[in-house]
Write a structure and sequence with these properties.
The chain is mainly β and about 425 residues long. It is built from 3 helices and 30 strands. Strands 2, 23, 24, 25, 26 and 27 form a 6-stranded antiparallel β-sheet that branches. It has a 5-stranded antiparallel β-sheet with strand order 1-22-18-17-16, with no helix packed on it. The N and C termini lie far apart (about 55 Å).
Protein backbone atom coordinates (compact mmCIF):
# COMPACT_ATOMS: atom_id res chain seq x y z
CA UNK A 1 0.00 0.00 0.00
CA UNK A 2 2.93 2.33 0.64
CA UNK A 3 4.14 1.83 -2.95
CA UNK A 4 0.64 2.61 -4.21
CA UNK A 5 0.47 5.76 -2.09
CA UNK A 6 3.78 6.90 -3.51
CA UNK A 7 2.74 6.13 -7.08
CA UNK A 8 -0.74 7.62 -7.06
CA UNK A 9 0.20 11.31 -6.92
CA UNK A 10 2.28 10.85 -10.05
CA UNK A 11 -0.35 8.78 -11.81
CA UNK A 12 -3.27 11.03 -10.90
CA UNK A 13 -1.59 14.13 -12.28
CA UNK A 14 0.12 11.89 -14.85
CA UNK A 15 2.29 13.48 -17.45
CA UNK A 16 1.33 16.77 -18.99
CA UNK A 17 0.73 15.22 -22.41
CA UNK A 18 -2.41 16.62 -24.00
CA UNK A 19 -4.18 16.24 -27.32
CA UNK A 20 -2.52 18.18 -30.12
CA UNK A 21 -5.19 17.50 -32.69
CA UNK A 22 -8.81 18.68 -32.53
CA UNK A 23 -11.20 15.98 -31.37
CA UNK A 24 -12.81 15.82 -34.83
CA UNK A 25 -9.49 14.67 -36.33
CA UNK A 26 -10.06 11.27 -34.73
CA UNK A 27 -13.56 10.77 -36.15
CA UNK A 28 -15.07 9.67 -39.45
CA UNK A 29 -14.03 7.27 -42.18
CA UNK A 30 -10.45 8.58 -42.45
CA UNK A 31 -9.24 9.61 -38.99
CA UNK A 32 -5.81 11.15 -38.49
CA UNK A 33 -3.40 8.71 -36.83
CA UNK A 34 -0.32 10.59 -35.54
CA UNK A 35 2.80 8.97 -34.10
CA UNK A 36 2.19 7.25 -30.76
CA UNK A 37 3.17 8.92 -27.50
CA UNK A 38 4.40 6.45 -24.93
CA UNK A 39 5.55 7.09 -21.35
CA UNK A 40 6.29 5.11 -18.22
CA UNK A 41 3.33 6.88 -16.61
CA UNK A 42 0.42 7.09 -19.09
CA UNK A 43 -1.82 10.10 -19.53
CA UNK A 44 -4.58 9.99 -16.93
CA UNK A 45 -7.47 12.34 -16.31
CA UNK A 46 -10.22 10.69 -14.30
CA UNK A 47 -13.57 12.41 -13.79
CA UNK A 48 -14.59 11.80 -10.16
CA UNK A 49 -18.15 10.50 -9.85
CA UNK A 50 -20.42 12.92 -7.98
CA UNK A 51 -23.92 12.17 -9.33
CA UNK A 52 -26.80 14.56 -10.09
CA UNK A 53 -28.22 16.96 -7.52
CA UNK A 54 -30.84 19.66 -7.19
CA UNK A 55 -32.91 18.68 -10.20
CA UNK A 56 -29.92 18.58 -12.58
CA UNK A 57 -30.32 16.66 -15.82
CA UNK A 58 -28.25 15.98 -18.93
CA UNK A 59 -28.31 18.55 -21.73
CA UNK A 60 -30.34 17.44 -24.79
CA UNK A 61 -29.60 18.61 -28.32
CA UNK A 62 -31.77 21.25 -29.95
CA UNK A 63 -35.20 19.83 -30.71
CA UNK A 64 -34.99 17.18 -27.99
CA UNK A 65 -36.32 16.90 -24.45
CA UNK A 66 -35.12 14.69 -21.59
CA UNK A 67 -36.60 13.48 -18.32
CA UNK A 68 -35.96 10.64 -15.90
CA UNK A 69 -37.73 7.40 -16.80
CA UNK A 70 -36.53 5.73 -13.58
CA UNK A 71 -34.32 6.86 -10.68
CA UNK A 72 -32.71 5.28 -7.64
CA UNK A 73 -31.33 2.29 -9.51
CA UNK A 74 -28.15 0.45 -8.52
CA UNK A 75 -25.49 0.94 -11.19
CA UNK A 76 -27.75 0.40 -14.22
CA UNK A 77 -25.63 -0.62 -17.20
CA UNK A 78 -27.70 -2.25 -19.94
CA UNK A 79 -31.24 -1.96 -21.30
CA UNK A 80 -33.53 -4.29 -23.21
CA UNK A 81 -37.08 -3.33 -24.28
CA UNK A 82 -39.66 -6.14 -24.38
CA UNK A 83 -42.44 -6.32 -27.02
CA UNK A 84 -45.11 -5.26 -24.48
CA UNK A 85 -43.13 -2.10 -23.64
CA UNK A 86 -41.62 -3.28 -20.36
CA UNK A 87 -38.00 -2.19 -19.96
CA UNK A 88 -35.38 -4.54 -18.55
CA UNK A 89 -32.32 -3.08 -16.85
CA UNK A 90 -29.17 -4.95 -15.83
CA UNK A 91 -28.17 -3.57 -12.42
CA UNK A 92 -24.64 -4.85 -12.35
CA UNK A 93 -20.96 -4.28 -11.76
CA UNK A 94 -17.69 -6.18 -12.06
CA UNK A 95 -17.43 -9.61 -10.40
CA UNK A 96 -14.66 -10.50 -7.95
CA UNK A 97 -11.41 -10.59 -9.95
CA UNK A 98 -8.52 -11.62 -7.67
CA UNK A 99 -5.90 -11.51 -10.45
CA UNK A 100 -6.98 -8.11 -11.75
CA UNK A 101 -5.38 -5.03 -10.27
CA UNK A 102 -2.10 -6.50 -9.03
CA UNK A 103 1.08 -4.45 -9.00
CA UNK A 104 1.39 -0.67 -8.69
CA UNK A 105 -0.22 0.04 -12.06
CA UNK A 106 -3.05 -2.41 -11.45
CA UNK A 107 -3.81 -0.98 -8.04
CA UNK A 108 -3.78 2.52 -9.48
CA UNK A 109 -6.30 1.41 -12.10
CA UNK A 110 -8.56 -0.03 -9.39
CA UNK A 111 -8.34 3.33 -7.63
CA UNK A 112 -9.33 5.07 -10.89
CA UNK A 113 -12.34 2.79 -11.32
CA UNK A 114 -13.54 3.40 -7.78
CA UNK A 115 -13.08 7.15 -8.18
CA UNK A 116 -15.05 7.01 -11.44
CA UNK A 117 -17.98 5.25 -9.76
CA UNK A 118 -17.29 1.62 -10.70
CA UNK A 119 -16.18 0.22 -7.35
CA UNK A 120 -19.49 -0.86 -5.84
CA UNK A 121 -20.53 -4.47 -5.35
CA UNK A 122 -22.71 -5.84 -8.13
CA UNK A 123 -26.46 -6.03 -7.52
CA UNK A 124 -26.53 -9.03 -9.88
CA UNK A 125 -30.13 -8.60 -11.00
CA UNK A 126 -32.35 -7.82 -13.95
CA UNK A 127 -34.98 -5.25 -12.98
CA UNK A 128 -38.25 -4.76 -14.85
CA UNK A 129 -39.59 -1.22 -15.25
CA UNK A 130 -43.17 -0.61 -16.39
CA UNK A 131 -44.81 2.59 -17.64
CA UNK A 132 -48.40 1.39 -17.66
CA UNK A 133 -50.04 4.82 -18.07
CA UNK A 134 -47.76 5.90 -20.94
CA UNK A 135 -46.54 9.14 -19.38
CA UNK A 136 -42.87 8.39 -20.01
CA UNK A 137 -42.09 7.56 -16.38
CA UNK A 138 -41.92 4.03 -14.97
CA UNK A 139 -44.33 3.89 -12.03
CA UNK A 140 -43.59 0.26 -11.10
CA UNK A 141 -40.44 -1.80 -10.86
CA UNK A 142 -39.74 -5.38 -9.85
CA UNK A 143 -36.76 -7.68 -9.57
CA UNK A 144 -37.33 -9.96 -12.55
CA UNK A 145 -34.26 -12.19 -12.03
CA UNK A 146 -31.88 -12.15 -9.05
CA UNK A 147 -28.75 -14.01 -8.03
CA UNK A 148 -26.95 -13.59 -11.35
CA UNK A 149 -23.20 -13.24 -11.93
CA UNK A 150 -22.45 -9.73 -13.22
CA UNK A 151 -25.19 -9.85 -15.90
CA UNK A 152 -25.08 -7.53 -18.89
CA UNK A 153 -26.61 -8.39 -22.28
CA UNK A 154 -30.18 -9.64 -22.73
CA UNK A 155 -32.16 -11.04 -25.66
CA UNK A 156 -35.72 -12.36 -25.97
CA UNK A 157 -36.39 -15.17 -28.44
CA UNK A 158 -39.92 -16.54 -28.40
CA UNK A 159 -40.68 -17.72 -24.88
CA UNK A 160 -37.06 -17.61 -23.74
CA UNK A 161 -35.15 -14.73 -22.19
CA UNK A 162 -31.39 -15.04 -22.60
CA UNK A 163 -29.04 -13.28 -20.18
CA UNK A 164 -25.28 -12.95 -20.63
CA UNK A 165 -23.60 -13.36 -17.27
CA UNK A 166 -19.91 -12.55 -17.20
CA UNK A 167 -19.10 -16.25 -17.57
CA UNK A 168 -22.03 -17.84 -19.43
CA UNK A 169 -25.23 -17.32 -21.39
CA UNK A 170 -28.31 -18.50 -19.48
CA UNK A 171 -31.85 -19.17 -20.72
CA UNK A 172 -34.93 -18.41 -18.63
CA UNK A 173 -38.58 -19.17 -19.42
CA UNK A 174 -40.55 -15.98 -20.01
CA UNK A 175 -44.26 -15.22 -20.45
CA UNK A 176 -45.29 -11.79 -21.65
CA UNK A 177 -46.28 -9.47 -18.81
CA UNK A 178 -44.77 -11.43 -15.93
CA UNK A 179 -42.75 -9.47 -13.39
CA UNK A 180 -40.81 -12.24 -11.69
CA UNK A 181 -38.88 -15.30 -12.89
CA UNK A 182 -37.93 -17.78 -10.18
CA UNK A 183 -37.02 -20.70 -12.46
CA UNK A 184 -33.27 -21.40 -12.54
CA UNK A 185 -31.41 -20.41 -15.67
CA UNK A 186 -30.28 -23.10 -18.10
CA UNK A 187 -26.69 -22.68 -19.26
CA UNK A 188 -26.54 -22.40 -23.06
CA UNK A 189 -22.86 -21.59 -23.50
CA UNK A 190 -19.81 -20.76 -21.44
CA UNK A 191 -18.09 -17.41 -21.99
CA UNK A 192 -14.45 -16.60 -21.17
CA UNK A 193 -14.11 -15.18 -17.66
CA UNK A 194 -11.63 -16.40 -15.02
CA UNK A 195 -9.84 -14.74 -12.15
CA UNK A 196 -8.56 -11.75 -14.14
CA UNK A 197 -11.54 -11.08 -16.45
CA UNK A 198 -10.25 -7.60 -17.35
CA UNK A 199 -13.20 -6.71 -19.61
CA UNK A 200 -16.06 -8.43 -17.85
CA UNK A 201 -19.13 -7.12 -19.74
CA UNK A 202 -20.73 -9.48 -22.26
CA UNK A 203 -23.26 -7.94 -24.65
CA UNK A 204 -25.87 -10.09 -26.41
CA UNK A 205 -28.10 -9.90 -29.48
CA UNK A 206 -30.29 -12.42 -31.31
CA UNK A 207 -30.28 -12.95 -35.05
CA UNK A 208 -33.45 -11.77 -36.83
CA UNK A 209 -34.59 -15.38 -37.36
CA UNK A 210 -34.03 -16.25 -33.69
CA UNK A 211 -31.74 -19.19 -34.41
CA UNK A 212 -28.49 -17.64 -33.22
CA UNK A 213 -27.14 -15.41 -30.49
CA UNK A 214 -24.10 -13.18 -30.74
CA UNK A 215 -22.04 -12.38 -27.64
CA UNK A 216 -19.19 -9.88 -27.30
CA UNK A 217 -16.14 -10.71 -25.22
CA UNK A 218 -13.47 -8.09 -24.47
CA UNK A 219 -9.76 -8.72 -24.02
CA UNK A 220 -8.05 -9.66 -20.77
CA UNK A 221 -5.60 -6.75 -20.97
CA UNK A 222 -4.73 -3.53 -22.77
CA UNK A 223 -2.28 -5.01 -25.34
CA UNK A 224 -1.79 -8.65 -24.30
CA UNK A 225 0.67 -7.70 -21.55
CA UNK A 226 -0.51 -10.74 -19.58
CA UNK A 227 0.45 -13.07 -22.42
CA UNK A 228 -1.51 -14.29 -25.41
CA UNK A 229 -2.54 -17.43 -23.57
CA UNK A 230 -4.65 -15.22 -21.27
CA UNK A 231 -6.56 -14.02 -24.35
CA UNK A 232 -7.84 -17.40 -25.45
CA UNK A 233 -11.40 -16.98 -26.74
CA UNK A 234 -11.43 -13.25 -26.03
CA UNK A 235 -11.33 -9.95 -27.95
CA UNK A 236 -14.07 -10.87 -30.39
CA UNK A 237 -17.68 -11.84 -31.04
CA UNK A 238 -19.00 -15.35 -30.51
CA UNK A 239 -21.88 -16.83 -32.51
CA UNK A 240 -24.00 -19.34 -30.56
CA UNK A 241 -26.29 -21.70 -32.46
CA UNK A 242 -29.38 -22.13 -30.30
CA UNK A 243 -30.60 -25.54 -31.56
CA UNK A 244 -27.21 -27.19 -31.04
CA UNK A 245 -25.59 -24.85 -28.47
CA UNK A 246 -22.45 -24.96 -30.59
CA UNK A 247 -20.43 -21.75 -30.84
CA UNK A 248 -17.73 -20.20 -32.98
CA UNK A 249 -15.86 -16.91 -32.99
CA UNK A 250 -17.26 -14.96 -35.92
CA UNK A 251 -14.92 -11.93 -35.68
CA UNK A 252 -11.79 -11.33 -33.63
CA UNK A 253 -8.96 -8.92 -32.94
CA UNK A 254 -11.41 -6.42 -31.39
CA UNK A 255 -10.02 -5.22 -28.07
CA UNK A 256 -13.37 -4.64 -26.37
CA UNK A 257 -16.52 -4.89 -28.49
CA UNK A 258 -19.75 -3.94 -26.73
CA UNK A 259 -23.18 -2.98 -28.09
CA UNK A 260 -24.39 -4.56 -31.34
CA UNK A 261 -27.20 -3.85 -33.78
CA UNK A 262 -28.68 -5.04 -37.07
CA UNK A 263 -28.46 -2.26 -39.68
CA UNK A 264 -31.97 -1.97 -41.18
CA UNK A 265 -31.08 -1.33 -44.84
CA UNK A 266 -28.46 -4.07 -45.31
CA UNK A 267 -29.30 -6.47 -42.50
CA UNK A 268 -25.62 -6.49 -41.47
CA UNK A 269 -24.46 -6.79 -37.87
CA UNK A 270 -22.53 -3.77 -36.53
CA UNK A 271 -20.73 -3.21 -33.24
CA UNK A 272 -18.84 -0.53 -31.31
CA UNK A 273 -15.32 -1.26 -30.07
CA UNK A 274 -13.11 0.26 -27.37
CA UNK A 275 -9.56 0.41 -28.71
CA UNK A 276 -6.27 0.32 -26.78
CA UNK A 277 -4.94 2.86 -24.29
CA UNK A 278 -1.61 4.46 -23.37
CA UNK A 279 -0.52 5.70 -26.80
CA UNK A 280 -1.38 9.32 -26.05
CA UNK A 281 -4.43 11.54 -26.17
CA UNK A 282 -4.58 11.41 -30.00
CA UNK A 283 -4.53 7.60 -30.31
CA UNK A 284 -6.25 5.21 -30.80
CA UNK A 285 -9.76 6.03 -32.07
CA UNK A 286 -12.54 3.86 -30.73
CA UNK A 287 -14.66 2.70 -33.63
CA UNK A 288 -17.88 1.51 -35.21
CA UNK A 289 -17.54 -1.53 -37.48
CA UNK A 290 -19.56 -3.86 -39.63
CA UNK A 291 -18.95 -7.39 -38.36
CA UNK A 292 -17.33 -9.36 -41.17
CA UNK A 293 -17.54 -13.13 -40.80
CA UNK A 294 -14.01 -14.35 -40.11
CA UNK A 295 -12.66 -10.80 -39.98
CA UNK A 296 -9.55 -9.98 -37.95
CA UNK A 297 -9.47 -6.37 -36.68
CA UNK A 298 -5.85 -6.11 -35.59
CA UNK A 299 -5.75 -6.34 -31.80
CA UNK A 300 -3.25 -6.61 -30.20
CA UNK A 301 -0.68 -6.54 -32.98
CA UNK A 302 -1.94 -3.54 -34.91
CA UNK A 303 -4.58 -0.83 -34.87
CA UNK A 304 -6.71 0.71 -37.58
CA UNK A 305 -5.55 -1.81 -40.13
CA UNK A 306 -1.81 -2.23 -40.46
CA UNK A 307 -0.55 0.34 -37.91
CA UNK A 308 1.84 -1.77 -35.81
CA UNK A 309 1.74 -1.54 -32.02
CA UNK A 310 5.42 -1.87 -31.14
CA UNK A 311 4.63 -2.75 -27.54
CA UNK A 312 3.46 -6.20 -28.64
CA UNK A 313 6.07 -8.93 -29.10
CA UNK A 314 6.32 -11.26 -30.90
CA UNK A 315 4.43 -9.75 -33.82
CA UNK A 316 2.24 -11.62 -36.31
CA UNK A 317 2.84 -9.95 -39.69
CA UNK A 318 0.74 -12.52 -41.54
CA UNK A 319 -2.26 -11.54 -39.41
CA UNK A 320 -1.57 -7.82 -39.58
CA UNK A 321 -1.56 -8.04 -43.38
CA UNK A 322 -5.22 -9.09 -43.29
CA UNK A 323 -6.38 -6.75 -40.53
CA UNK A 324 -9.73 -5.11 -41.34
CA UNK A 325 -9.76 -1.31 -41.30
CA UNK A 326 -12.69 -0.16 -39.13
CA UNK A 327 -15.57 1.51 -40.94
CA UNK A 328 -15.88 4.62 -38.80
CA UNK A 329 -13.82 6.29 -36.06
CA UNK A 330 -15.77 7.64 -33.09
CA UNK A 331 -12.91 9.62 -31.54
CA UNK A 332 -10.04 8.87 -29.20
CA UNK A 333 -10.87 7.24 -25.84
CA UNK A 334 -14.62 8.01 -25.92
CA UNK A 335 -15.37 4.46 -24.61
CA UNK A 336 -18.42 3.52 -26.69
CA UNK A 337 -20.64 0.96 -24.97
CA UNK A 338 -24.34 1.34 -25.80
CA UNK A 339 -25.44 0.97 -29.43
CA UNK A 340 -28.87 1.02 -31.04
CA UNK A 341 -30.09 1.67 -34.57
CA UNK A 342 -32.98 4.09 -34.99
CA UNK A 343 -34.51 5.95 -37.92
CA UNK A 344 -31.73 7.39 -40.04
CA UNK A 345 -28.75 6.09 -38.10
CA UNK A 346 -27.29 4.79 -34.86
CA UNK A 347 -27.24 6.03 -31.26
CA UNK A 348 -24.10 5.37 -29.21
CA UNK A 349 -23.65 5.71 -25.45
CA UNK A 350 -20.08 6.87 -24.76
CA UNK A 351 -18.95 6.15 -21.21
CA UNK A 352 -16.05 8.60 -21.29
CA UNK A 353 -12.26 8.70 -21.22
CA UNK A 354 -9.63 8.30 -18.52
CA UNK A 355 -6.60 8.26 -20.86
CA UNK A 356 -7.08 11.61 -22.65
CA UNK A 357 -6.54 15.29 -21.94
CA UNK A 358 -8.95 16.96 -22.38
CA UNK A 359 -11.65 14.37 -21.61
CA UNK A 360 -13.72 12.86 -24.40
CA UNK A 361 -16.99 10.95 -24.53
CA UNK A 362 -19.34 11.33 -21.56
CA UNK A 363 -22.24 11.77 -23.98
CA UNK A 364 -24.66 10.07 -26.34
CA UNK A 365 -24.12 10.66 -30.04
CA UNK A 366 -26.04 9.96 -33.23
CA UNK A 367 -24.24 8.74 -36.38
CA UNK A 368 -26.31 9.23 -39.55
CA UNK A 369 -26.40 6.28 -41.97
CA UNK A 370 -27.13 6.33 -45.71
CA UNK A 371 -27.36 3.18 -47.87
CA UNK A 372 -26.21 1.02 -44.97
CA UNK A 373 -23.08 3.06 -44.12
CA UNK A 374 -22.14 5.94 -41.79
CA UNK A 375 -22.61 9.17 -43.74
CA UNK A 376 -21.83 12.11 -41.47
CA UNK A 377 -20.07 13.37 -38.35
CA UNK A 378 -21.24 12.46 -34.84
CA UNK A 379 -24.08 14.62 -33.54
CA UNK A 380 -24.33 14.96 -29.76
CA UNK A 381 -27.79 13.93 -28.60
CA UNK A 382 -27.24 14.12 -24.86
CA UNK A 383 -24.40 15.92 -23.07
CA UNK A 384 -23.69 17.77 -19.86
CA UNK A 385 -22.60 14.65 -17.97
CA UNK A 386 -19.43 16.46 -16.83
CA UNK A 387 -19.83 19.59 -14.73
CA UNK A 388 -17.62 22.67 -14.98
CA UNK A 389 -15.23 21.15 -12.42
CA UNK A 390 -14.63 18.09 -14.61
CA UNK A 391 -16.65 15.85 -12.28
CA UNK A 392 -18.97 13.17 -13.62
CA UNK A 393 -22.60 13.77 -12.69
CA UNK A 394 -23.41 10.75 -14.85
CA UNK A 395 -21.90 8.35 -17.37
CA UNK A 396 -23.92 6.90 -20.28
CA UNK A 397 -23.82 3.17 -20.95
CA UNK A 398 -26.62 1.21 -22.63
CA UNK A 399 -29.06 2.81 -25.05
CA UNK A 400 -32.29 1.47 -26.53
CA UNK A 401 -35.42 2.74 -28.26
CA UNK A 402 -38.65 2.11 -26.40
CA UNK A 403 -41.92 1.03 -27.96
CA UNK A 404 -42.87 4.67 -28.69
CA UNK A 405 -39.52 5.35 -30.34
CA UNK A 406 -38.05 7.39 -27.47
CA UNK A 407 -34.38 6.92 -26.64
CA UNK A 408 -33.59 5.35 -23.26
CA UNK A 409 -30.12 5.88 -21.76
CA UNK A 410 -28.68 3.98 -18.80
CA UNK A 411 -26.59 6.25 -16.57
CA UNK A 412 -24.51 4.14 -14.18
CA UNK A 413 -23.16 7.04 -12.10
CA UNK A 414 -26.45 8.95 -11.81
CA UNK A 415 -28.31 5.63 -11.26
CA UNK A 416 -30.96 6.86 -13.67
CA UNK A 417 -32.58 5.75 -16.92
CA UNK A 418 -33.06 8.91 -19.01
CA UNK A 419 -35.77 9.17 -21.67
CA UNK A 420 -35.15 11.43 -24.66
CA UNK A 421 -37.97 12.56 -26.95
CA UNK A 422 -38.32 14.93 -29.89
CA UNK A 423 -36.57 15.22 -33.25
CA UNK A 424 -32.97 16.20 -33.96
CA UNK A 425 -33.08 19.48 -35.86
CA UNK A 426 -31.36 19.40 -39.21
CA UNK A 427 -31.70 15.61 -39.35
CA UNK A 428 -35.33 15.02 -40.35
CA UNK A 429 -34.92 11.24 -40.50
CA UNK A 430 -33.61 11.02 -36.93
CA UNK A 431 -36.90 11.17 -35.08
CA UNK A 432 -36.19 10.15 -31.49
CA UNK A 433 -39.78 9.63 -30.45
CA UNK A 434 -43.29 9.64 -31.75
CA UNK A 435 -44.60 11.25 -28.57
Amino acid sequence: MRSLALALPFVLCACAETARLPFSAGTGTQPQLPEPVTAVIPTAKVAPAVGWSGGEMPRPASGLQVKAFATGLEHPRWIHVLPNGDVLVAETNAPPRPEEGKGIKGRAMKHFQKRAGAGARSANRITLLRDADGDGVAETRSALIEGLNSPFGMALVGGSLYVANTDAVLRFPYRGGETRIDAPGEKIADLPAGTRNHHWTKSLIASPDGRKLYATVGSNSNVAENGLEAEEGRAGIWEIDLPSHEKRMVAWGMRNPNGMGWEPASGALWTVVNERDELGSDLVPDYLAKVRDGGFYGWPFSYYGQHIDKRVSPQRPELVAQAVVPDYALGNHVAPLGFAFGPGGAYIGQHGSWNRRPPSGYNVVFIPFTAGKPSGPPVEVLGGFLNDKGEARGRPVGVALDRAGALLVADDVGNVIWRVTGSLRGLPDADTASR
